[in-house]
Specification:
569 residues, alpha/beta, 11-stranded mixed sheet, globular
Length: 569
């Protein structure tokens, strides 16, 4: 009997201790914000209604009206380097994405910082949130592992309690698990720590990722924990596909062509205060045929491509609306920071040029006009519509020009009511989001040592003081910000931007632009502003030395266009 009494007493003490811990978590939770971080894939600067688009995005527009819109948010030029910097707050040349997986030049193979996956020289901020009581989850695209099936590089090793992901850079959007490239034997999806063999009937990427994200958020509420929900949509990444109930929403809307749409978006962007008044109507670049020179079939197919793209964006917005409704139903909306961003500029490269993709598509997909955008089709936007999406900036995804690295950003946190409806042109880096989230959550970054190994400190800064109105600018105006991918280089400092990229897109020498006077980068001032160019080149040299860059010794990258008109020469 004494043993039973002693056991009962011990159980009571254990329950009291456990109860005390639960009560403490419950007490702390209201002061610890939830975080929802939403990433769109290849969404251009003017592709949202609140950024000047004709595409209907009422839910994101509402989010923006109650928060802050950044018109100077900068990412990497492509998706996985951006995501690596987003998760770590550390420059891509240190976190493993000095180049993308599979795109190594001969002299980059085996070089530290060029692994082609998120390396362990950095700590991903979800690990730190998880260790400090947060429920953490991801639904959508991972793209931080190479090879993709290397389990040591999956989300659970980076601090995610729950996950449902496509491991590769993309896939078809339906339940047939259509691979993105011919050299992918199959699309790799997993939930938590297990690969899955099939997707549920009726699967559509944006819808299903939303469903999973809501499930995971509900779990956190049941566990009485603050949550970090990372929702990484693959829309509107190619192949462009959308369910039949959305496929004709924009039928006929783009029949007048991309030049007309460009003029419409510039006018609307100016009206909204997104674009400066001196923004010119976008010029058609030499790798795009004028709309009037296309034949009837080419116009029909081009117009249909943009219709599907727009429908994908509207479907994504509808799913953001579902997330908002779910948060409200759980009573979590008032204590949740919501960040919406795109990972890079719009996709304008010629995907047919990637390792025999053109032949593979021709043999395996039905790209007839009537079938474009459906399950067994494979289409992409190309340079014409991508340049409209990237307005008013130069070029698009994979370039370090503004069109490649400047994307829409919305930050909404009800406790920052003073930010409601604000439009800011202050420079922000994707590297700033990790330190901002940690700061708001009251979590310290370990700086240089984590789990007994040396790591890099974060390069980004917390934006909390700025967002709370205590600082005029997020970054000092005289700070230099640098980019490099595939040898395409850029330096941004105040209003000035210097860029270096090869022909036919650039001159093969450094160019210089004043973005305040010339937001579309039409006037190269390198020959007249030699002192300024020398200053920015010196900033670049300092960056390259400090981050130990290994520039490619051969041409690398993907999707170069083949059609160039005579004026390009």
């Amino acid at each position: 009997m004494q043993d039973h009494n002693r056991l009962a007493t011990m159980l009571i003490i254990l329950l009291i201790i456990t109860s005390g811990c639960t009560d403490k978590a419950s007490t702390n939770h209201p002061s610890r914000p939830n975080i929802v971080l939403i990433v769109a894939d290849d969404l251009g600067f003017t592709d949202l209604g609140c950024f000047g688009s004709e595409i209907r995005t009422p839910n994101l527009d509402k989010l923006a009206s109650r928060g802050l819109r950044s018109t100077s948010f900068h990412t990497a030029a492509t998706c996985s380097p951006t995501r690596g910097m987003l998760l770590s707050g550390v420059d891509s040349h240190r976190n493993g994405y000095g180049t993308m997986e599979g795109d190594w030049a001969e002299n980059q193979v085996g070089v530290r910082g060029y692994e082609g996956h998120l390396n362990f020289d950095v700590v991903a901020f979800p690990r730190l949130l998880q260790a400090n009581g947060y429920h953490t989850s991801i639904a959508g695209k991972w793209h931080q592992a190479y090879p993709a099936d290397n389990e040591k590089l999956w989300p659970d090793k980076r601090g995610f309690d729950r996950s449902f992901c496509i491991l590769q850079g993309g896939a078809g959007h339906f339940d047939d698990m259509q691979p993105m490239f011919s050299f992918y034997k199959r699309s790799l999806y997993f939930e938590d720590r297990a690969l899955i063999d099939s997707l549920p009937t009726g699967f559509y990427s944006s819808d299903f990722y939303t469903q999973k994200a809501m499930e995971y958020i509900s779990e956190s509420v049941e566990e009485n924990k603050p949550f970090f929900s990372f929702i990484t949509y693959t829309a509107p990444h190619w192949p462009l596909q959308v369910p039949d109930d959305y496929i004709d929403l924009y039928k006929g809307r783009y029949d007048e062509g991309y030049e007309v749409l460009a003029a419409e978006r510039v006018a609307q962007g100016k009206k909204l205060g997104i674009l400066p008044e001196n923004t010119p109507t976008q010029e058609i670049t030499p790798n795009v045929m004028p709309w009037k020179d296309l034949d009837a079939n080419e116009k029909a197919r081009s117009s249909r491509t943009m219709e599907v793209y727009a429908a994908m964006v509207e479907r994504l917005d509808a799913n953001v609306g579902k997330i908002m409704e779910h948060l409200a139903s759980l009573g979590q909306i008032d204590n949740t920071l919501i960040i919406f961003m795109s990972d890079n500029g719009a996709e304008g490269n010629n995907i047919d040029n990637i390792v025999d993709t053109g032949d593979w598509v021709a043999k395996n997909f039905d790209n007839s006009l009537e079938n474009m955008g459906r399950k067994n089709s494979y289409i992409f936007t190309g340079p014409s519509w991508a340049q409209v999406s990237s307005l008013p900036f130069k070029w698009y995804k994979s370039f370090s020009t503004e069109g490649g690295v400047r994307t829409p950003l919305i930050i909404n946190y009800p406790k920052w009511a003073a930010q409601a409806g604000t439009i800011s042109n202050a420079f922000i880096s994707v590297k700033d989001l990790a330190p901002t989230i940690l700061d708001l959550a009251g979590v310290q970054h370990p700086d240089t040592v984590f789990d007994g190994r040396k790591i890099y400190p974060m390069d980004g800064i917390s934006l909390v003081d700025w967002l709370e109105g205590n600082r005029e600018y997020a970054h000092e105006m005289d700070q230099a910000h640098c980019w490099e991918l595939y040898g395409r280089r850029a330096v941004l400092k105040g209003d000035w931007k210097a860029e270096f990229y090869d022909k036919p897109y650039g001159k093969g020498v450094w160019e210089l632009y004043n973005l305040k006077d010339d937001p579309s980068q039409l006037r190269d001032l390198a020959s007249s502003e030699t002192e300024k160019l020398s200053e920015l080149k010196a900033d670049w040299d300092d960056y390259a030395k400090r981050y130990e860059l290994t520039l490619p010794n051969e041409r690398v990258g993907y999707g170069d266009d083949e059609i160039w008109r005579e004026e390009a020469n």
